[in-house]
Amino acid sequence: MIRTAILSKDQKLTEEQIRQIEAAREKDIVFDEDSPELTPAMEKAFTLAAKSRNRFRNIS
Fold first, then answer.
1. I want to staple 38 with a disulfide (CB 3.0 to 4.6 A). Which of 19, 42, 46, 60 is the partner?
2. How far apart are CA 43 and CA 49, in angstroms?
3. Residue 17 CB: number of other CB atoms within 10 A?
4. The 3-state secondary structure of the chain, one letter per residue
5. Above 80 in pLDDT, residue 7?
6. In Å, what is the CA distance from 40 to each residue of 33, 45, 52?
7. Max CA-CA distance within the chain?
8. What is the rounded CA–CA span in Å between residue 24 and residue 18?
9. CB–CB of 13/1 below 8 Å?
10. What's the pLDDT tens digit per position in 9-58?
11. Cβ neighbour number for residue 46 with a 10 Å cutoff
12. Closest CA relative to residue 29, chosen from 37, 41, 21
């Protein structure tokens, strides 16, 4: 299950949120047919897309 929390700029994480993040960090990533592990070619394409996105995001 994915939980999303939106924080304002000056809002701090609660102790419970910090514990949840630490617990999630310890868990293994589970791949399945809906979200398979990335191949090296897919990783490269993802990295290039992120660089392109970040370049345009930093202009404005």
1. 42
2. 10
3. 13
4. CCCCCCCCCCCCCCHHHHHHHHHHHHCCCCCCCCCCCCCHHHHHHHHHHHHHHHHHHHHC
5. no
6. 17, 9, 18
7. 39
8. 10
9. no
10. 888 888 998 999 999 999 998 899 988 999 999 999 999 999 998 888 76
11. 11
12. 37
Reading the block at residue 21, the tokens are 């993040």
Taking the model in full, what pTM does it have? 0.46
- Distance, in Å, from the CA atom of 51 to the CA atom of 55, rounded to the nearest integer, reads 6
The encoded tokens of residue 37 equal: 């592990």
Structure tokens at 54: 């970040």
- Count the helix, strand and coil residues of the chain and give each as a percent rounded to the nearest 5: 55, 0, 45
Phi and psi for 20 in degrees, rounded to 5? -65, -40
The candidate with the shortest Cα–Cα distance to 17, out of 5, 1, 2, 29, is: 5
Residue 45 CA, distance from chain mean position: 17
